[in-house]
Amino acid sequence: MFSKFSQFTINQRFIILLALAGSIAGLVAVTLWTQQPDMQVLFANLAVDDASGIIDKLKDAKVPYETANGGTTVLVPSAQVHDLRLEMAGQGLPHGGGVGYEIFDRTTMGMSDFVQKLNYRRALQGELARTITQMPEVERARVHLAIPERRLFATEQDRARASVVVSLRASQTLSKAQIQGVVHLVSSSVEGLQARDVTVVDGHGNLLSNTKGHRDPYSNDVGTDCRRQ
Length: 229
Hints:
About 40% of the residues lie in helices and about 15% in strands. It is α+β, with helices and mostly antiparallel strands and about 230 residues long. The radius of gyration is 28 Å and the shape is elongated.
């Protein structure tokens, strides 16, 4: 066979070797492609902190992963999706863009009263956001609480206030009753917070709640239907 190959001209030999190399490269590429796992979305629309935490866990477990959509979507082998979701949920991931009561699991001795109050407010904001995000129409939620220091005289006491920002899923709406429920949830979770002082807006800054007057959160006047633009 070698003697026959030596009978070819240099150009013919080059073409034969080039074709042989291309065939081998193609075979290797097909083999590698067939061995790659089928990737499926583990979580999408993640906050930066959540994406970072999930990727760290995947690295520690030596699980192959890919990211998409600017790092807000994490993909893993399809055969491991369900097990990994359960495992991540057991570790409190994703948080939904906020820290919950697990913040107190990381506290240290000697923490000042100011830091304790700050952590409590952060934890409460995170827990409320998680609860609101459980609504099927809501993609993400953030809660901001303004809780004033307690004054000696009630007449000098500033009012607590809260703002809720909800980002809705595509073509989803919140009914008046659902907005009323969000207002009631937040106001009943913070001491001294009245429903009239809870503001709910969508991701575009549109006001959803009706904060005028002193209406009960379950009255028909609170809130309007909203649709994600």
